[in-house]
Design a protein that fits this description.
The chain has 299 residues and is mostly helical. It is built from 15 helices and 3 strands. It has helices spanning 2-15, 20-39, 49-61, 66-85, 112-122, 133-146, 150-154, 184-195, 197-201, 221-235, 238-241, 246-259, 264-271, 276-279, 281-295; strands at residues 161-162, 167-171, 177-181. Strand 1 and strand 2 (167-171) form a beta hairpin. The longest helix has 20 residues, at 20-39. Mean pLDDT is 81; it is low at 278-282 and 285-299.
Length: 299
């Protein structure tokens, strides 16, 4: 029965156009919850709020931090909302369970100097590899200048780009679309890639902007993740390099925009956040910078 309930729940998530990564996370979290229930000799449909509290303690004992426990609780809560909606349980046992309190961590962002180092490294032609310099340079510009998620980047199609008005239609989480602008440097990088390297490799009229130079088809997320790691290791301090991910470019873009005067509501639109609280973290970044500056100020 448990297996069938999980399948129905996952299919429901798919019908709501949840991303594959989100669905996999829900699946893993539920498997862990079911493992706990099996240890407790408890049926999924018999769970009470006291069982959820025991589950959180179970996670704590396994070394899960507050953020991880909160994520898993959210999964279980969503699962029981689904069961309640289908009249399989009378009420959600997670209803009055508070999420573990999270420590507010400021998102790590890169300095302009480090961004320039990465772009310069991407522009180098390495003899041992096929020349992807123009493509890789464009990838970095789109990440840091447009604040794109890596999944949004790989799904940009040629038809989504308005070169006349410097705009891109971006498809984000839940297939929600938004319009993002790009600067003249990014425009030049797009034009150069389209006119040169992309023409050499495109196969079967592939509609996507960023292509795999070997297959001529849409570039995969994992290739960009590997690229960012290689570039970071090649030109950045080793301590910083191990922290750099594609998402750090998104944080960098958001931080720079906020520090340069964009209001938090506009920033929410640029980043495609559905919840304003997600965007407000960048106000803390700016405030932290102001605090540091005033603490070091002397007369």
């Amino acid at each position: 029965m448990t297996k069938n309930l999980k399948c129905d729940f996952i299919n429901n998530l798919k019908s709501k156009s949840k991303s594959e990564n989100t669905i996999q996370a829900y699946s893993r979290n539920l498997d862990l919850f079911f493992e706990f229930l099996e240890q407790q000799n408890k049926s999924v449909l018999e769970v009470k709020h006291t069982d959820i509290e025991k589950f959180l303690l179970f996670l704590f004992d396994k070394g899960n931090g507050a953020s991880t426990r909160s994520q898993k609780l959210s999964t279980v809560k969503t699962f029981y909302n689904f069961l309640q909606m289908n009249e399989l349980v009378e009420k959600n046992p997670c209803l009055y369970i508070d999420s573990p309190k999270l420590e507010k961590k400021l998102p790590v962002h890169l300095s302009s100097e480090n961004i320039n180092k990465l772009i310069e490294e991407a522009q180098k032609v390495k003899k041992q590899k096929q020349n992807n310099a123009k493509r890789n340079t464009l990838i970095l510009h789109l990440l840091v200048n447009c604040g794109l998620r890596i999944s949004e980047l790989v799904n940009i199609k040629i038809e989504d780009i308005d070169m006349l008005n410097n705009l891109i239609i971006v498809t984000g989480k839940g297939n929600k679309q938004r319009v993002v602008g790009f600067n003249e440097t990014t425009k030049k990088a797009i034009t150069t890639y389209l006119q040169k390297d992309r023409k050499k490799v495109v196969k079967n009229n592939c509609p996507y902007l960023i292509l795999n130079s070997r297959t001529g088809e849409q570039l995969k997320v994992r290739v960009i993740q590997k690229l960012i790691k290689e570039l970071s290791n090649d030109c950045l301090d080793s301590n910083l390099a191990q922290k750099v991910t594609p998402h750090k470019f998104r944080h960098t873009c958001a931080t720079m925009l906020y520090e340069n005067g964009i209001d938090v509501f506009t920033l929410q639109l640029v980043l495609g956040h559905s919840n304003l609280n997600t965007t407000k973290i960048y106000t803390h970044v700016a405030n932290a910078a102001v605090l540091a500056a005033t603490q070091n100020f002397t007369v």
